[in-house]
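Collaborator request, handled under Task 6.
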Amino acid sequence: MNRFKNLSTRTKLMVNIGLFVLIMIITTGLSIKEMGELSQRIEVIYKTNVLPMAILGDLRDNTQRVAGAVGLHILAHDSATAAKRIEEIARLDAEIETLMSSYAPIILSEPERKYFEQFQTSWSGYKDIRAKVLQLSKDYSKDGASELREKELNPKLDALNDAVNGLVGENKTQAREAFQASQDLRDTLTLTLILFVAGGCVAGIGFGWFMSRCIVANLLDVLEAAQQLGSGKLDARSTVTTLDEVGRLAQEFNRMGEALEHSMVKQQEAIEEMNARIDIM
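C-alpha cells returned to the collaborator:
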C-alpha cells in the first residue's frame, strides 16, 4: 500500500487507466466466448433438430409419392405408362435410401433409434409386398393387385407413416429440450457477464476512489498546513510523507515553514535586542 502511495501521480493515473483497459479486454473476451458458445448451440440445434425434420419431411413425401406411383401403375393399361411408373418408383426408392443413410448418423436417443428401426423394417416389408403388387399389375391382374394392395400394402404404408410420426414427435421433444438448454445457457452467460461487468465497475470505481483519496487527502493536508501558516501559526507542518509529487510539495512546504519560523524567531530576537538597547539609553 505504501509503495503505491509513493508512486508518482502520473503512474497512479496510468495504473487506473490500465485497470480500466484490462477490465474492458476481459469483458470483451468473455462476450466473444459467450457468442461462440451460443453459436455452437445454434449449430447443434440445426444438426440435431432442423436437419432431421427436413429429412423426415422428405421421407414422408417420398413414401406417399411411391404409394401414389403404385396406384397409377395399377391403373395403367399400356406398357409404356407402366414402365414410366416403374422408373419413378425406382427413383423414389433411391431417394428414400439416401435419406435413410443421411438420417442414421444423427440419431441421438434410444426411442428415436427404435422408431428408425421400425421404419427400416416396415420399408423392407413394404418393398417385398409392393413387388408382388407390381407383378400382378404387370400381368394385368389389376383386381388382384388392388386387393393385395388394400389388404397388405396399405397397412405397411400406415406402419411407415407411424414410424415417421414417431420420429417427428421425438425430434420435437429434442427440439424443446435443446431450446430450453439454449435458454438456460443464455441466461447463465448473461448473468455471468453482468456480474463480471458489475464487479469490474465496482473494482474500477473503488480503485479510482482510493487513488483520488490518496491524492486529494494529501493535497488537503498541505492546504490545511498552508492556511494555518498563513493565519500566523508558524509551527504548522504538513504530515504527508509520501514520495510522489504531493509528498515532495509537502517537504518543500515544511522546509519553507521552518525557514519562515526561523526567520521570524531571528527577527523577534532582533526586535527584543533593539528594544533592550533603547531602554538602556
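The cover message to the collaborator said: "The chain is about 90% helix and 0% strand. The first helix runs from residue 2 to 5. Please let us know whether this matches your experimental observations."
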